[in-house]
Write a structure and sequence with these properties.
alpha/beta; Nucleotidyltransferase, domain 5; five-stranded mixed beta sheet; 12 strands
Length: about 775
């Protein structure tokens, strides 16, 4: 591609400076153009006696004005045509092979712009004036005044045209360009929903088919509105205001008479102002969630809406991080459970933090909940990492949220607990910590140079050995270090020869430096690398290091499997604790002389070139009879520390209460409980106000017979139920059980709502 053409003014300047007697070299430096441009400008001026560009010298246009007008007219005939549609039109009718960018540039030449077709017309001047007057009237209302308002509204959700953005093109100065609306489906094309929202509560979703008239509206108010008034105190009930828009069914004589009869005060509302009603945020959230469902008929549509509305209780999952632009952000997510016991962990987004203290983070969390129409009174759990600002005892995010909602049980992220346990293990075991430092050095040394990586691949091909990429050590995820250990062990013998080869290669470059002084700087770098390679080579010839790598891989590979299980969004506390217990039992089982002998023998066969030397201790240290006894002590000590660290980290304050709830859920379906059972006190502490404990006691006496009947009817080969997932599976196979044992059903949902990790938020970051 050629350089940018010189402007006419620059050419005139060249000629003027030439006439003053300045040479071409001086003109080039003064105008900052090349000498070739100066020479050509002077030559063309001498030939043509003008600095203007010769006619026809530019690149010829591919399209004529007539073809451009044809594309413009096609767009005006149908303003919803996309750029791809116009490209296909040009190919089929105008015999032009043009790109989308060319079509877009042509439309901009005719001042045709793209915008989203509005769904409603603009308000009139009178409506705008009434809106401003209403805002000034309520400008001085306090939070207490607004907390006495019940906001209500009905909405119609369409089955078709779900992704309802239509882009159209009109002239920029077209005064009628807002008269283009999107097609709407009326009368049977969607499902109607009515609900209300207050300062402390979100009302139920009431479904209705067809158009809503005054009679249906009064019937809904008669059944649902008293529940909203019950949530207010006796002092607040005197000042309650009911909000509704100015639809005909709201302002009809029959509806007005009903409000007077019930002594319900109405708040005046400006016309066509849905943006002032906070319940519109609820409709927006419901509309976005409906896009995840494949809906083709009214039954599926209603079922999807009921599924969304049934997930009332939720838990908070948050994690903070600093991005590459040094902005501190909070990843906010919620965990909820539907009636089929399906666990959902939805990330609502990343939000910038002005400060990193607990008060600022809690302020952002409450702001997000308000914007999303979520009530803090429905929060039943919270999970964060171990930072002091997030999970400290006093003044942390968990503490401040608990002061607002005492039922929001805090659970320290179990994946983070596992990382801390592995980190503690590394600090307590010098054998493993030394190997980690060495593994980091050798992996960084090889990965830092593409030449060393190519040498490693070349040697692996020469020896017909499979090449394994060296994985860098993760600085935060300690359980992921097994992958790095394995890659180093697979190339252990290969790496020894590789380092030796690299060392000799660097020495060769140093030798050549005697003859090439120009490579002095490069040789200095290679010299330092050569010394580093020699030191790493000597360390890799030691059996102590190879033993530490194998032992570290044994421990980290097991913890990595546990970490993968913990990070699943469908996990509950029972899965976490049972997996951690199985890992500790595994470490206890292999912590004996038989397993050590097998481990040590395999190690000797794998490293027959590395001969372990007799351990020689100083006078003030413990002496060992043989080198095998020394490595046995390191093996037993590392496994014992691993078990102790896992026990310490997987013992949290709320685990005892949650474990009692879990034991009750399992015990109830296997044995008949009486009223004196100790588990009911834990149930009251866990879900006080959410579950009727007296009804739960009655259900606990009957549910064991129900489960035995379902197991026998469905011919399930189950002798004893030991997992929560089995209970959920049986309930889903017999839906009538959820109606018979409502309190027990609620208890399972609340138990599954409690988060166990923040992995979903961390994966988003």
């Amino acid at each position: 591609m050629g350089k940018k053409a010189v402007s006419i003014d620059t050419k005139k300047g060249i000629i003027l400076l030439r006439d003053t007697g300045m040479c071409q070299h001086e003109i080039s430096r003064k105008l900052n153009v090349s000498r070739t441009c100066v020479r050509q400008a002077i030559r063309k001026f001498n030939e043509l006696h003008t600095t203007a560009t010769k006619s026809g010298a530019e690149r010829p246009f591919k399209m004529t004005r007539r073809q451009k007008r044809a594309i413009k007219l096609q767009q005006l005939r149908d303003d919803t045509l996309s750029l791809n549609d116009l490209v296909r039109y040009a190919q089929a009718n105008l015999n032009l092979n043009i790109s989308r960018q060319t079509v877009s540039r042509i439309l901009r030449e005719f001042d045709l712009v793209s915008y989203v077709a509005p769904r409603k017309p603009q308000i009139t001047h009178e409506q705008r004036r009434c809106r401003i007057f209403w805002c000034y009237k309520h400008l001085n209302w306090t939070e207490t005044d607004w907390s006495n308002v019940i906001f209500s509204d009905e909405a119609n959700f369409e089955i078709v045209n779900r992704n309802n953005r239509i882009y159209i093109r009109r002239f920029r100065n077209d005064l009628k360009r807002h008269e283009r609306f999107q097609p709407r489906v009326h009368r049977g094309g969607g499902l109607g929903i009515w609900s209300y929202i207050t300062y402390n509560d979100l009302g139920p979703l009431v479904f209705f088919n067809g158009r809503l008239n005054s009679d249906k509206y009064i019937e809904i108010l008669e059944n649902k509105l008293p529940n909203a008034f019950e949530k207010f105190s006796s002092e607040q009930s005197k000042n309650i205001l009911y909000q509704q828009d100015n639809a005909r069914l709201h302002t009809s004589a029959k509806t007005s008479k009903y409000f007077k009869k019930k002594h319900i005060k109405l708040i005046p509302w400006p016309a066509r102002r849905p943006d002032l009603n906070i319940i519109e945020n609820i409709w927006s959230i419901v509309d976005q969630k409906l896009l995840k469902y494949s809906i083709s008929n009214m039954a599926q549509f209603e079922e999807a809406l009921k599924t969304i509305s049934n997930r009332k209780c939720f838990s908070l999952i948050c994690d903070e991080t600093c991005d590459e632009s040094t902005l501190e952000q909070l990843c906010f997510g919620i965990r909820s459970v539907n009636d089929n016991y399906e666990i959902f962990e939805d990330v609502l987004g990343l939000y910038e933090l002005s400060r990193q203290n607990a008060e600022a983070i809690v302020e952002v969390i409450f702001d997000i909940l308000t914007r999303c129409g979520l009530n803090i009174s429905d929060c039943r759990g919270q999970s964060y990492d171990g930072a002091s600002s997030m999970s400290g005892i006093y003044g942390s995010v968990s503490d401040l949220v608990l002061k607002q909602q005492s039922k929001a049980f805090f659970v320290h992220c179990n994946a983070h607990c596992l990382d801390l346990a592995v980190h503690d293990l590394t600090n307590e075991c010098p054998t493993i910590s030394n190997c980690i430092l060495f593994a980091k050095d050798i992996i960084d040394f090889v990965r830092r140079s593409p030449k060393r990586l190519s040498i490693l691949k070349e040697i692996s091909n020469q020896l017909s050995m499979p090449y394994s990429n060296l994985a860098s050590l993760c600085p935060t995820r300690w359980t992921r270090r097994a992958e790095s250990y394995n890659s180093l062990l697979n190339n252990y013998e290969l790496d020894i020869q590789n380092l030796n080869y690299v060392y000799l290669f660097i020495l060769l470059l140093i030798f050549l430096a005697w003859f090439q002084e120009a490579l002095y700087t490069l040789i200095e770098e290679k010299g330092a690398s050569g010394i580093k390679a020699n030191g790493l080579h000597e360390q890799m010839n030691r059996f102590y290091l190879f033993f530490g790598l194998k032992l570290g891989y044994l421990l980290f590979s097991a913890t990595e499997k546990l970490s993968r299980i913990i990070q699943s969004s469908s996990c509950c506390l029972q899965d976490i604790l049972s997996s951690a217990e199985s890992l500790m039992l595994y470490f206890e089982r292999i912590r004996d002389d038989i397993n050590f002998k097998s481990f040590y023998t395999k190690l000797r066969h794998a490293s027959f070139t590395l001969i372990p030397k007799r351990y020689q201790s100083s006078s003030d240290s413990v002496e060992f009879s043989s080198y095998e006894e020394f490595y046995r002590q390191q093996y037993m000590k590392s496994l014992g520390i691993a078990v102790n660290m896992l026990q310490n980290r997987f013992t949290q304050k709320n685990f005892k209460l949650l474990c009692n709830v879990e034991k009750f859920i399992l015990y109830a379906v296997n044995n008949s409980l009486d009223d004196s059972n100790d588990y009911f006190q834990s149930i009251m502490d866990f879900c006080y106000g959410d579950i009727d404990v007296e009804k739960l006691k009655v259900e606990a006496l009957m549910i064991v017979d129900f489960y035995q009947s379902v197991i026998k009817t469905n011919q399930m080969n189950i002798k004893q139920i030991t997992k929560i997932s089995t209970i959920c599976e049986i309930f889903n196979s017999c839906e009538v059980g959820k109606e018979m044992f409502k309190e027990y059903h609620k208890l399972i949902k609340l138990y599954l709502t409690i988060p166990v990790t923040t992995a979903t938020a961390e994966r988003t970051i």
